[in-house]
């Protein structure tokens, strides 16, 4: 799971790939449709899609000469689950800090 998580975060590190994922959240798109908002070549868009595919975030199928891409949200759910562990950690720490600050404020009055 760690390797897949690394690949997911690597794929998400690029703003173009995050944008492509947002577009794919609306439904299946061709490589050309994914490239269009970025004014990039089909080859450039395809390289971004390959990174997303390796991370498992996108599936690609051929429809004649057109490559159609679809979002696979499972790796995003895994990344979210990992991040939630840290959210709970920090919430606990911050709740403790808040309690200490309230106690200190009460002692000063």
Give the structure's gist in a few sentences:
The chain has 109 residues and is of the alpha+beta class. It is built from five helices and three strands.
Largest sheet: 3 strands, antiparallel
Number of continuous helical runs: 5
Q: What structural class do you assign from the helix and strand content?
A: alpha+beta
Helicity level, as a percent range?
55-70%
General shape:
elongated
Q: Main sheet: which strands, in order across?
A: 1-3-2
The radius of gyration is 21 Å
β-strand number:
3
Average pLDDT confidence is: 89
What proportion of the residues form beta strands (DSSP E)? 5-15%
Q: Uncertain segments of ≥5 residues (pLDDT<50)? A: none
One letter per element, helices H and strands E, the order comes to HHEHHEEH
N- to C-terminal distance: 52 Å
Question: Can you characterise this structure?
Answer:
This protein has 109 residues and is of the alpha+beta class. It is 68% helix and 13% strand. It is built from five helices and three strands; from the N terminus they run ααβααββα. A three-stranded antiparallel beta sheet has the order 1-3-2. β2 and β3 (66-71) form a beta hairpin. α1 (2-12) packs across α5 (74-108). The chain is elongated. The mean pLDDT is 89.
Q: What attributes characterize this protein structure?
A:
109 residues, 3 strands, three-stranded antiparallel sheet, alpha+beta, elongated
